């Protein structure tokens, strides 16, 4: 039986796969993201997604499909990853306040058969996000909740941060961290049916 593996420790991605009633395991990759110096956000998220999936694929599976993913925020040509501390999170939120930015998520699927990688496919999705104007009080309160600290761009659209997002153009799930329509399409491209081949 082919296993489904999520190569990510993100609780948001875990929740999205659980939402589809999929049967999967989580195996976190050992990729050092700081070593990748690509400046184009779409190239960066695809490269990191593939590296994460390939890293996990090398850890002794006989038959599996591994999902790798990576998300960044981009504004004014600058890539915003996860904040390193509260001061960094505050600076990011000030930068995003009352502005439009882009969220890029790369997805990579790596197929392992008889212990060997036989196929892989990588793609990305972009969503435009408009943030409302944030006061210093808004920002201080939000950072104090700790919600921004493990999220690209220092906010999460699926929780408290939803109150700060004015509107989006594109896939909502992409902003959460994993575009489900793109994921399903990529599985079909590899000859799998996500909703029937990997359900509980």
Describe it for me?
By secondary structure, the protein is an alpha/beta fold. The protein has a single domain (3-197), classed as Maf protein (Alpha-Beta Complex). It is built from seven helices and seven strands. Strands 1, 2, 3, 4, 5, 6 and 7 form a seven-stranded mixed beta sheet that branches.
Topology:
Elements: E1 3-6, H1 11-19, E2 25-26, H2 41-57, E3 63-75, E4 78-80, H3 86-96, E5 100-113, E6 116-131, H4 136-144, E7 165-169, H5 172-176, H6 180-189, H7 194-197
Parallel strand pairs: 1-2, 1-3
Antiparallel strand pairs: 3-4, 3-5, 5-6, 6-7
List keywords for this structure.
200 residues, Maf protein, 7-stranded mixed β-sheet, 7 strands
Q: What's this model, at a glance?
A:
The protein has 200 residues and is an alpha/beta fold. It has helices at residues 11-19, 41-57, 86-96, 136-144, 172-176, 180-189, 194-197; strands spanning 3-6, 25-26, 63-75, 78-80, 100-113, 116-131, 165-169.
* Structural shape: elongated
Low-confidence stretches: none
The chain-level structural class is: alpha/beta
Briefly note the CATH topology name.
Maf protein
């Amino acid at each position: 039986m082919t296993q489904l593996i999520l190569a990510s420790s993100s609780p948001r991605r875990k929740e999205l796969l659980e939402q589809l009633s999929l049967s999967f395991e989580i195996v976190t990759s050992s990729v050092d993201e700081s070593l990748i110096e690509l400046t184009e956000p779409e190239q960066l998220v695809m490269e990191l997604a593939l590296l994460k999936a390939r890293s996990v694929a090398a850890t002794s599976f006989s038959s599996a499909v591994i999902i790798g993913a990576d998300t960044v925020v981009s504004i004014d040509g600058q890539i915003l990853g996860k904040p390193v501390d509260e001061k960094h999170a505050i600076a990011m939120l000030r930068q995003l306040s009352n502005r439009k930015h882009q969220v890029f998520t790369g997805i990579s699927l790596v197929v392992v058969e008889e212990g060997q990688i036989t196929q892989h496919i990588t793609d990305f999705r972009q969503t435009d996000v408009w943030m409302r104007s944030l006061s210093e009080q808004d920002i201080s309160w939000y950072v104090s909740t700790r919600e921004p600290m493990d999220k690209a761009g220092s906010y999460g659209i699926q929780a408290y941060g939803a109150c700060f997002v004015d509107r989006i153009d594109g896939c909502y799930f992409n902003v959460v961290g994993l575009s489900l329509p793109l994921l399903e399409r990529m599985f079909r491209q590899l000859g799998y049916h996500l909703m029937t081949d990997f359900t509980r």
